[in-house]
């Protein structure tokens, strides 16, 4: 049995944003433990915190709108707003073509972003890019996109 | 009038270290340095600070470097403490 389509979507997005110029292979799932600035920045974190679902009009099909977060992190000698915008540029470019899960093309619609800065021993910044994906599946098969 | 000896609080034999303010004499500033763990936006970091006599680092020194050990920190903020005799410097690592 394949993974849940949400998991497949996260995986496909993570694969798509791996190897970008600024963040390279530093692509992580949601981090509950702190990122290490010396070895893990700049980076991106790919995760889903929820979805909206409704019954579609055909049979027992489920329609899901999944919000995928692609959150970039950076540090700098000054506020790293330029680095964050560069990260956003690279992510938006690569996700503009959508992703493929189980052989189905999935469009990712850019829904906006939030940017934060905070000082510790140096300025840190994060940009949370939100993408929406519409997924369909039979109610009895959440691992098989239609 | 009673004159406090503030240097008694900054004895290098106890917790203070010698620091060098940019443009000042080497080791002329006595500071109690701390760099406690601080997480910013989910990133592991520290919050370096130096407690010094207010007269040793004045408001115009914000933006200068304060070298402690081999590290030249940049002074980012100067926070008066209690009666203002001491200030807590917020430092940025290089």
Outline the secondary-structure elements.
The complex is a heterodimer of chains A (146) and B (94).
Chain A (H helix, E strand, L loop, with lengths): L4 H12 L10 E2 L8 H4 L2 E13 L5 E15 L5 H15 L3 E3 L2 E3 L1 E12 L3 E16 L8
Parallel strand pairs in A: 1-2
Antiparallel strand pairs in A: 2-3, 3-7, 4-5, 6-7
Chain B lengths: L16 E5 L7 E12 L2 E11 L11 E4 L2 E11 L4 E7 L2
Antiparallel strand pairs in B: 1-2, 1-4, 2-3, 3-6, 4-5, 5-6
Question: Describe it for me?
Answer:
The complex is a heterodimer of chains A (146) and B (94). By secondary structure, chain A is an alpha+beta fold. Chain A has helices at 5-16, 37-40, 81-95; strands spanning 27-28, 43-55, 61-75, 99-101, 104-106, 108-119, 123-138. In chain A, strands 1-2-3-7-6 form a five-stranded mixed β-sheet. A two-stranded antiparallel ribbon of chain A has the order 4-5. The radius of gyration of chain A is 17 Å and the shape is elongated. The two termini of chain A are 15 Å apart. The model of chain A has no long low-confidence stretch (mean pLDDT 94). Chain B is an all-beta fold and 94 residues long. Chain B contains no helices and six strands. Chain B has strands at residues 17-21, 29-40, 43-53, 65-68, 71-81, 86-92. A six-stranded antiparallel beta barrel of chain B has the order 1-2-3-6-5-4. Chain B is globular, with a radius of gyration of 13 Å. The model of chain B has no long low-confidence stretch (mean pLDDT 94). The interface between A and B is medium-sized, with 20 and 18 residues.
- Derived from helix and strand composition plus strand pairing, the structural class of chain B reads mainly beta
The order of strands across the largest sheet of chain B is: 1-2-3-6-5-4
What is the mean predicted local confidence, pLDDT of chain A?
94
Rg measurement of chain A, Å? 17 Å
Give the helix level of chain A as a range of percent: 10-25%
How many strands in all of chain B?
Answer: 6
Order of helices and strands of chain B: EEEEEE
């Amino acid at each position: 049995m394949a993974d849940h389509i949400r998991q497949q979507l996260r995986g496909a997005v993570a694969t798509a944003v791996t190897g970008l110029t600024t963040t390279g292979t530093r692509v992580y799932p949601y981090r509950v433990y702190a990122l290490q600035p010396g070895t893990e920045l700049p980076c991106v974190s790919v995760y889903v915190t929820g979805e909206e679902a409704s019954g579609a009009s055909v049979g027992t099909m489920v329609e899901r709108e999944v919000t995928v977060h692609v959150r970039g992190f950076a540090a700098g000698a000054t506020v790293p707003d330029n680095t964050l915008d560069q990260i956003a540029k690279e992510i938006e470019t690569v996700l503009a073509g959508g992703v493929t899960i189980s052989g189905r093309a999935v469009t990712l619609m850019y829904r906006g972003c939030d940017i934060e800065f905070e000082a510790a021993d140096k300025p840190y910044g994060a940009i949370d890019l939100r993408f929406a994906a519409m997924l369909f599946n039979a109610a009895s098969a959440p691992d098989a996109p239609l | 009038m009673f004159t406090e000896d503030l240097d008694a609080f900054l004895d290098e034999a106890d917790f203070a270290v010698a620091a060098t303010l940019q443009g000042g004499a080497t080791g002329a500033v006595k500071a109690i340095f701390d760099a406690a763990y601080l997480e910013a936006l989910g990133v592991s970091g520290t919050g370096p600070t130096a407690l010094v006599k207010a007269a040793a680092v004045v408001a115009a020194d914000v933006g200068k470097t304060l070298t402690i050990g081999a590290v030249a920190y940049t002074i980012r903020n100067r926070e008066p403490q209690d009666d203002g005799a001491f200030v807590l410097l917020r430092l940025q690592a290089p």
